[in-house]
Every structure is written in structure tokens, then in C-alpha cells.
Queue: 3 jobs
Job 1
Amino acid sequence: MSDRKLGVLVHGAGWVAGEHIKAFKNNPRTRVVAISSRRLESCRARAEEAGLEGVALYTDYERALAHEGVDIVSVCTPQQHHADNVVAAAGAGKHIVIEKPVANTPAEMRAMLDAVTKAGVRTVVSFVLRWNPLFETVKALLADDAVGDVYYTEADYQHDIASWWAGYGEGRTKELGVSAALVAGCHAIDAARWFADKEAGRAAVPVEVFAYSGGWRKGREVEYDYFKNAWKPAPPLEYDDLEVALVRYSNGALSKVSTNYGCVMPYMLPVEVFGTRGTIKDNRVWSHKFPGQRGWVDIPTILPESADVSHHPFQGEMDHFVDCVLNGRESHCSLADAVLTHSVVFASLRCYETGQPVRLPLPEFL
């Protein structure tokens, strides 16, 4: 194996890009060689923040892709740009990290997947909670048969996405944000899929979706700021703030998943896993592995209880992806797998229009 470090281009210089840069800087097999964004000042700020020296800065993405020594592109731009960014990176033969949501339409996802497949490059999508310590522990318990066969999971994204978020101006719109589940609730959908399959490194395959949407914030020019525990005027959401989906998988398991922007509370992402021989509720376990159990066994670990990107385990994700690139293997969280999570979002949107269950795969992927 060569001792040459893989070169990384970070495209997009917003909030999350700083964590991508930090993770690649800390990996001994990579180095950040370039940063690109619409504004040169943003690129420079990220480079200085990370203490990077000699890194190239670009406002032209095509020129950045052509920078000498780039092996990996980390796409951290707003969601409406992901499809074009990924297709271009794949065309340039680069391996790709893709922030979620990956795209705004099934057609965009199809184009991205076709480009990645044609180029033969590796991908990972930032459903970063798969590397959260609680999620890693729960997945290991499932693989060890702690709850038997999984027949039902629940996951809920509960967070008042609002004007405190720098991307809210675009993300709140129907055109650019699309839906609450797409902007953020896809994390809960992915968690439900991840735990609905007990095998290590595998998520359940959804085959049918039925969903409702509702809530109270759509069109209202007021929001709750949980940082200050106060109400204030704000631009309105253009889509429903509450979505609830039922999902059936090819292995027979079911999930209930919700996205809730209207909750008056701090961020939470609770998960529940029900099996034929036990149950897991967040970090509490009831299992046939504990004979004579009289109470829940609490796992002292880190839960997904903060929306701050610095709390998210990007280091685990990037280390995993670098290993995939160096060893020529696909990530369990590749673009192809992420398409299955996002398909639940788009199936839900179609269900709102028809009032009927939606079969998967979507027509765009048949």
C-alpha cells in the first residue's frame, strides 16, 4: 500500500464543512488539499479555522475538481446543488462524501447513481448517526441476537428547525427544502431502517410506505427559539412541519417514523427496537441475555441528543470511508443505500397526494 495520503477537496464552506475538514485532517491517510465555495472569504475562514497551510482555495468548482492530487470530494453545499456537484465529481473520477439530503427529486438521485456507477467511484452519505456510540452499540447488540429477530422499530426526529439555522432561508421553502422529512427527518428514517435489520453493516430494504402530514407551523410567521426559551416572529415554513410514515420492509419488519418541527422542546432523536426476545429503548435494554432481569439495563453511552454538528461523529464516518476507498469496498452507507432511505421521503410525498400506500422501488428506479 502506498504511503501517499489521499487528497481531499471540501466543496462548500458552511457549518458542516468545518467538521468534514477536521475529520479528514485528523485521519492519518488523508489531507485537505483544496476548499471551494461561492465566496472566497468563506473558504479562507474554514482554512484558517482548521489551521491548514498551503491549501488551495477556489470559487470555481470545475477548477477545484482539476486540482492536482484530489482523490476525494466532500460535498457540503446546500441540498439543491448536490446532484450537479456529485455528477461532476463522479465524472472527474473522484470518490465522494455526500451530505444529506442527497437530492431534491428522485430524478436527481437517479442521475447521481448512474454517474457514480458509470465512474466506479466509492461514495458515503452523511447519515452520520450510524457512527453515534449508541447506534453502534445497539447495532452490535442486534447482531449478537440480544433481542432476537427484529419485527418493529420506531425513530423520531424532534427538533424545531427554524431561523437559528443558517440554511433556514432556503430550507423552509417548498422549492429548495421540499419537506421536513427531506431536510432533516431522513435521519430518523435511516435509523429505523438501520435497526430493522439485525445483521451488521446492513439496513432493511423498504417496500411500501403510507404517510400523513400535518402540524401547526406551515404559513405561520412565528417560531419557538428553544435556545432562549422564547417566541419570536420568523419567516414561515412552506410545507407541513409534522410527517408520520409507516414503512414495511422486505424482511417483514415494520417501522413508524416521524419528523416534528413543531415540538416545543430541545432536540431529541429517540429510537425503539422490538424483537422476538427483547426490546431496546434508546440506551435501555430488556433482553433474554440477562436471566432473571428485574429492570432495564442502562447503557452508559453517548446518545444523539444534540443538533450541534460538533456533537456528530464525523470522525467515525470519514475514517470508515477512507478505509473503504483504500480497500476497494462499498460503504454500508453508500449512495445506493441512501437512495432507499430517501425513497421513503419521496414515497410519503406521493402518498399525501393520492391517499394510497406507495410501493417501492419508485418508478424512477425500476
Job 2
Amino acid sequence: MTAAAGPGLIDELVLGSTLKLEELIDRKALAELMESVRDLFRVPVRLYSEEGRLLADAGAENQLYAQLSESRPLRVALEEIVQRVKNLAPGPDGIARMSCITGARYCVARVEYDGHSMGRFILGPYALPGGTPDVAALAALEPELDAPRTTELFGKLPAVTDELATQIGAHLSRMLDLVLFSEHRALLTSQMHLASVRESFRELEDKSKKLESAYTKLTELDRLKSNFLATMSHELRTPLTSIIGYSEMLVEGLAGELSAEQRDFVQTIREKGEQLLLLIKGLLDLSKLESGTMSLRKDHVEAAKIVKDVISTVQPHALKKDVRLIQSVDPGLPRVFADGERLGQVLLNLAENAVKFTPPGGTVSLEAKLVRMDPEPLGTQHGMVLLATKRSGVEFRVADTGIGIPENERARVFDAFYQVDGSSTREQGGTGLGLSIVKRLVEAHDGNVSIESNQPAGTVFVVRLPLRHTSLG
């Protein structure tokens, strides 16, 4: 939507109440126009603003006035005449005429625009056809006047009638009116555009402030949410640990022998309690990662050992589902700079998901190998990506032959609580926190995680970590 200019600006531009002639005209172009009139009629022309400021001068060398000005009395008299001419008020027809002490004539034509007086053209001095100088008046001021020379120079003045001078002045006024109309329209368009831009900028500034305020509120709400999750996770974990502990003691018979049915019930309580504890731990990890309070104890760790531990942990579940596990680690793989516990958590989460979503008879593989990673962010920020050297890193690939993830869902699976199958009848359980935690942990190690398709079926999660800690400071 285009913003509208205020009434004050419209009045100023349309009515021209505060506009000045010098603000609307191109002085150079106008001077060329006046010079062409002077060359045609030999009449000197000058344009003055309403305040008496000379804006354009198409005068001519005047030997008569130059000679007379050598006499101080005559110079003073001529200066007074010039001042009176400049202040001469044109009549209702826009024209005024005045005689000089020399017998020459001046013609003044008013410049009007939109009903407002903007300035005046002054034509002259010029002589009437057949006119002669007023030698007596000049001699009264300068007794030593050279009358013959004065008469000779007076004859060199342009000779035009008052009617022709009036026509020239009126013609210049009409031409200038057209120029003013064109320039005023351009100025009006420009000012309206500027007013529209200013109004648009003001609206954008207001929206920016509102967005900034909304962002601040959302940031505060996000902080409160993280604090709430951390507090609730801590408060829930304490009683839940007791529930799991007492259920274990009941299963072990420390409170007396249980019947088979009672043992099954208590075992169910224990299993569901452990599931709930994992959920609470996930919420606590997520809140720490979001608030930046999770500390990583990084060191140079063996990637092969972490892969082996993950395979050992997932093996019972895989055997139960009849899923084959494959591990592959490049020999001589260097150590990776990471928090071993958190890296194991990342790979364990991906491996457990792979087993969970792989049908019986399928395969899950965990591979680790040395790769070349993209340059450090510092190089790309300064436009040095072409010169930056790639980093060495370790790539972990967790591939399965399961149901796979649709391509349009791959970017969203890393969002907290997001489920590809969000229906209440989905076959696989879960909270949707695991992959979100995986992504945040990997990024906390200056690495990245992505998803590839595993043709003809399944999914491949790729985790890349640099061998050395990246420092941007």
C-alpha cells in the first residue's frame, strides 16, 4: 500500500505558498533561453527572485553606463535608478515601465505561478526608436560631461518600442510559466514519492519494533520453558527413581514372595518407570542444550571403542527382533576430539532408532571412517571459501533397511517432539526428542548431521565430527 502525504505537504506543494523560484528552475537552461532572446532582440534581460536575488543574467556590455559611472554623482544616480527598477511593482497587467536619467527605458514583467508572484524579468536599458539622451539632466549632475561621446554611446543602445519590450516580457513570463509547471510537477512527484518512502519507512520501523518486542517476549518464554523443563525433569526424576528402585526390590522378593501374576505387574511397573525415566532424562538434556548449560567434557577418544560399545548395547534388542548388526571401522582411524559419553549417546540413539524401525530379517550397520569436511566457518564468512583448506574429520554412518523417512520429512525429524507418523495409531512409540537431542549434541561438537536415502529401502544417518576442536575466537 502506498502511503499518502499529509495535508501540510500537499498544501505546500500544490499551492506553492512556500515555494521559491530558485527551487523550481534550472538556472543554466533558463539563462540559455534568455540569451537567445537577447541575441534576437538585442535587449538585455535579467531574472530576479521575489526577494531581489539575481537568478539569471543575459545582459550585454553597456559602454554608455560604463562611461557615466566614472563620474561619482552619475554613478550614485544610476545605482538609485537600478534599485528603483528592481523594486518596481508591475501593474494589474503584470507590466511596469520606467525611464532612466539617461533617457533610456526599462520594462519589468512579473513572473507568476499558480496565483503567486515568484519574481520578475527586467528588460533594459533600451532606447526608444529615434530617441536621444537627456544630456541636460546628465550635465546637471556632471558639468564636465562629454556630450558628443554620450550621444554616440546612447545610439548604441538597442532600439525597441515599449510595446515590443512589453511583448518580450510577457512572452518570457509565459514561457517561464510552462517551465515552472513542468518543474513543479516533477518536484511534486518527487516529494510525494519521498513522503511515501518516509511513511513506508516509518511503518517498517514500527513493524520492526513490534517484531523486536515479540522476539524478546518469545526469547523470554523460551527461557522460561527451558527452566520449567529442567525443574520438572529434576523434580520428577527423584520420585521416579524411588518407584523403580522399590519395584526392583519387590521383583527380587525383598518384601516377600510374589505370585507370578504379581511379579508380572511389578515388572511392568518397573519397565514403564524406566521408559518414563528415559523421557525425563531426554527432557533434561534438551533443556540444558537449549539454555546452553550443558557442559561437554571433550577429549581425544577412540571412535572404534565407542562404536563397539554401541553395538554391544543394541545387540540384545536386535537379536530379539531378528535384526542383523554390522560394524565397520577403518583401521588406524585417529582419535576424535569429543565428549565420549555424549558421542556414544548420539550413536546409541541412532542405532536404537534404526533397530526399532527395521523389520525382522533386516540389517543395521554402523560405520566409522576418515573423511574431509567442509572448511571452517571463519573462512566462508570472509569470502575465503575458495582458499580455505578442508578439515579432517570422522564420519559415522548408521544405515538400516527399515521403513525409511520421506524426503519431505527429513528436515523436520530433528525438531523437538516431531513424529513422522503423528497419529494415535502409529506402530512405533517414542517422544520425538531423540533426534532433536542428537542434532544439538553434534552441533555442540562443531559437527553436522544429515539424512540420506538407503536404496531400495531404509535410511542412512550421517554424523561428521572434526578431529580437532574448532575455535572461532
Job 3
Amino acid sequence: MNAVPDALPRTAGELRAAGYSPRPIAREIHDNLLAALREGRDAWPGIVGFSRTVLPQLERALLAGHDVVLLGERGQGKTRLLRTLAGLLDEWTPVIEGSELGEHPLEPITPASIRRAAELGDDLPVAWRHRSERYTEKLATPDTSVGDLIGDVDPVKVAEGRSLGDPETIHFGLVPRAHRGIVAINELPDLAERIQVALLNVMEERDIQVRGYTLRLPLDVLLVATANPEDYTNRGRIITPLKDRFGAEIRTHYPLDVESEVAVVRQEADLVAEVGEPLLEVLARFVRNLRESPVIDQRSGVSARFAVAAAETVAAAALRRAAITGEDPAVARPVDLDAVPAVLRGKVEFEPGEEGREVEHLVHLMRRAIAETARERFAGLDLRPLSDAVADGHLVATGERVPGAEVLAALPELPVLHEVAQRAGVSADEPAGRIAAAVELALESLFLARKLAKDSDEHTTVYGQ
């Protein structure tokens, strides 16, 4: 966050003279989104795979001024998408200095601020709030109370001498404190139904009710939420009156193609070693195979976080192997994919009756992903010279204790190896580890096509006739 610019007005009088007039949050987002669309700017940085599906629906909802609920399985980027909404707010917005709810200096709404504005007039002090402070996020949990969201009577303020009926005895909750901002509620169905009822007035009448008080606060908030479709019947549900108050219900989805899946992994994964594009494609196809497999419980979904964790696991395996062999730089090879099924099997839900076969299913789907990636990468390339060389006695050993240079040294000089490396995006003058990664992918594809045999023990894998 940058420092508040010195040129901004510091009193209500200066603010009025500068032409700052109150603008509803829906209008502010509407204007800024339209400006981004007209200028061709990306209004949704970091969001991958939604440009033709989810984002147009969301943009239409925001232009209409609607509250929005995003509906989709876990790990589809719903929360990430909601957080980008803050980028559609003005960078700086004026508030009454010291006000509890961040009210506009020219439009106070609480009794205390209205009184201050009347007493001080044009001298009412103005502070400036950054847009990042105007986005409020709450994870809905079963123990969330009405006081957390809306507010409750503050016994300390009552003890100070105020009467119990005084509106200034209220301790405001999360929603009123987000006045002139965005409130995001994650996993909305997890809120108890009686707590959801407390949001009805906020969404329709734009005011709040606390215990016995009739407190009319013209709140200005944009309420957005996320939900999992299974939650409607599993852990909870969104009550019908609340669903009716959302102007738009938008379905999210997992990436629709391999390229988008790879882009998500590239963006989100914190890789401790180099993982080449072919191996990221393998992992992307692996995750897509999981989402289509009948042995996986598709109701719970296979999160994009699985692909990210898989890439980080492969990178970690490469780094460990490099530390053992002394290879530099650490570059992931297909042998490192073996670490994924055992480590990540707990991140997916299997159908009943598959107990004990989880790793077997994951290994099978990983091999399918390797075969599909190799077929795509090496389409039209004749790999028979490579298989013939191995069959003639040039056995190739790989594993966690075998550096890339040894993999390449086991093979004679073959023109097809240069083609294999080129198809994998590697040039001949690059480190041996990168070239070995491409060669291993070709060898594994020959094994999966039954052109080569493979013998494995705890540390070493040997490709042979």
C-alpha cells in the first residue's frame, strides 16, 4: 500500500470544494469496471481459465449492481476471484477521521458522526482509506454469531452511563464495519440458518437490527459469497429467502484445457527446483484424468490445489535428488513423478470399495498422463532408433541416485535425441539435467507403448530390451 497522497483534502470543507461527492459502492464498481473494459485493461489479475465463462457473467452482475454468490466445487478459485474485486474500488476514499464505520464525511450515518458533522461543519477532519482496507472476508463457521456479523449491545458502553436504549451502546459487527466496501462470506451454507436470517435486512433493506433496537443505518455494502453445491444437502444450505436476495448465482469450474491448468500451476506453485513444461503438462493431464475417473468421488471434486501440490512435490523430489548426486541445477525428471501418488493420495476422495487400491489407481492415471503428454510432444517423431539402441545393449539406468549426465552417457550419439530435446523445449547446449528429462520422457513413453522393458527397485529404474 502506498502512503496517502499529500494533495488529498483533509477537511470536509476542502473535500466539498474539490468536488468529492458520495458515490454508492455499486456505482463505484460499475464505473471502474466500465473504464477497465473500455480501456482493455485486465480487471481480474491472476484469474486463469474464466475469461469466456465465469468473468462475463460476473461482470454483468456487477454492472447491474447485484450481490453475487459463486457456486462451485473446492479449489476452483472462488475466493481468489472475490479478492480481485477490491481492485475495482477507487484507490483512496475519504472517511470521517475516527469514525467507527468509515462513513463518508459528507454523508454520515451513525448518531455520533452526525453529531460531529453538525458541530464541526467544514472543519470535520477527513482521513483516507485504501481500497485494500475496504474488502472484508469472513469464513463462515458454525460458531459464528449474529454479534460477529451484525453487532450486539456493548456492556462496557452501558456501564459508562449510557442508557440501554441508546444506539451508541451497540458494538458493531463485521458487516456494518464494512460500510462503503465489500463483504465476502466464504462457505455461506456453513452459517447456521438463524444467522443467515440476520443478513436478510442487510441485503434487501440495507439496514441492520440488533436485539430490541430499531436502528436504521443506511448501510452501503456489496455482499458476495461462495458455496459448494454439495453443501446444500450435506453440511447445510442457503435458506431460500437469502438465496432469493442474491441478484446473481454464478457457477465456477475447473480449468477447461491443459494450457489453463498449467498456467494455474505456474502461477500458484512455489517450486524449489526447475520443473519443465512437459512435466507440468503431465501433472495437468493427471489431474484432469482424476476428475474424469469413476473411482474418484467427483462430488467432492479434485482441487486445483492438488495440481499445485503435485508440482511442488515433484520439484522437492528433484531438489533432494540433486543434493544426493551433486547435480546442478536441480531439474525435475519423469523419475520424480513417482513421488506424487504416495504423498498426495489423501488429497482426493475415492468411491466406496476402493480401499487399499488408491495408489494403484493413481499410478495408472499418472502413466496415462505421461503417455498422453509424450504422444502430444513427440507426434510424428520416429523413436525407433532410441528403442533399437537400448535393445542393442545400451541399458539406461535412472533413479534418485543417478545424475542426468549418466543417463545421457548410457546412450550413443543419436540424432533422434536432439529431436526429442527440441520437442521438449530444450536446446543442445543446455545442462545435462534438462536434456535427460526429455530423454527420460521418451524412454518412459516407449515403455508404456510396450517397446521397451523397465525394471525397478527401491532406488534405480533400468530401461532395457
